[in-house]
Automatic annotation (TrEMBL):
The UniProt record lists the keyword S-adenosyl-L-methionine: yes
Protein name: Uncharacterized protein
GO biological process, one term: methylation
Coiled coil (residue ranges): none
Source organism (scientific name): Brachionus calyciflorus
GO cellular component: cytoplasm; nucleus
Lineage, highest ranks first: Eukaryota, Metazoa, Spiralia, Gnathifera, Rotifera
InterPro entries referenced in this protein's UniProt entry, alphabetically: Methyltransf_16, SAM-dependent_MTases_sf
Length: 241
């Protein structure tokens, strides 16, 4: 695969050792080929909650609009979870599949062929388009406990499709499903639109604290420069009771 570069992130362990995570980016114009600041925030959140929220060995985690997939890689490497499933709309983004495979290789993570594969080191990679809900995809999904999506609300014309997809997952896969999303406030009107849609589909949300940029936990090249663009909020979205 030509034209890619590798970004490195260092994650310090409690033992004073550090683990390097490598993420491949592709130098071409496409939203999915770059690590967005929201993804770094999400990765930090997951890492900081590896012994809390994301320490559930029976739980399955689905990342949507994964792009370069940093949060899913952190979840697989550091959290005690069952399945981690990476998704994006791969057919419209065909080189992304190869890019993600490269990242899995770099981090010595196996790519599983089946969602029910027992290999605990593995990750599944699936096509999922939130604007074109595919019954076959939903049929093969295990019970999903967590959905994560970083910078997936980037085009307000797509917000409703995505909220409908989340409502669908909650209704048909797991009523207790929790959706964590990092959202960059590029426009306040768009943010209000998102909050309105959450209400419209009888969902609830909590704005969570974003962990500080703590260099001792997850750090990498150019990261802080990118993060300082707009405010990024972390929302937990779930079914209203
Ligand atoms: C701004 S990028 C964020 C990528 C990555 N999550 C990150 O934060 O670095 C938006 C991602 O959403 C994906 N995407 C856009 N429309 C989509 C759709 N309808 N269904 C699934 N994924 C979609 C793109 O391919 C891209 O990977």
């Amino acid at each position: 695969m030509n034209g890619y570069k590798i970004k490195s992130f260092r994650i310090n362990q409690d033992t004073n050792e550090s683990i390097e995570i490598k993420i491949a980016e592709l130098c071409e114009v496409n939203y999915g080929y770059y690590i967005w600041p929201c993804s770094i925030k999400m990765a930090r959140f997951i890492h900081q909650n590896r012994n809390g929220i994301f320490n559930l060995k029976e739980a399955n985690l689905l990342e949507i609009g994964s792009g370069t997939s940093l949060p899913a890689i952190i979840a697989r490497k550091f959290c005690n979870l069952n399945r981690v499933i990476i998704t994006d709309h791969l057919e419209q983004n065909s080189k992304l599949f190869d890019l993600i495979k490269k990242t899995l290789n770099l981090n010595k993570i196996d790519l599983l062929n089946r969602l029910d594969d027992e290999n605990s080191n593995g990750i599944c990679l699936e096509h999922f388009d939130w604007s074109d809900l595919d019954q076959n995809f939903f049929k093969k999904l295990p019970k999903i406990d967590f959905v994560i999506g970083s910078d997936v609300f980037f085009d307000s014309a797509m917000f409703e499709d995505l909220i409908v997809a989340i409502s669908f997952l909650i209704e048909f896969i797991n009523k207790n499903l929790e959706f964590y999303t990092t959202y960059e406030i590029r426009s306040f009107n768009s943010y209000l639109k998102l909050l309105h849609l959450i209400e419209k589909y009888s969902l609830n949300f909590i704005k969570l604290e974003i962990p500080e940029g703590d260099h001792s936990e997850l750090s990498g090249d150019e990261m802080e420069i990118k993060i300082n663009s707009h405010e990024i909020v972390l929302l937990k979205i779930f079914k209203k009771i």
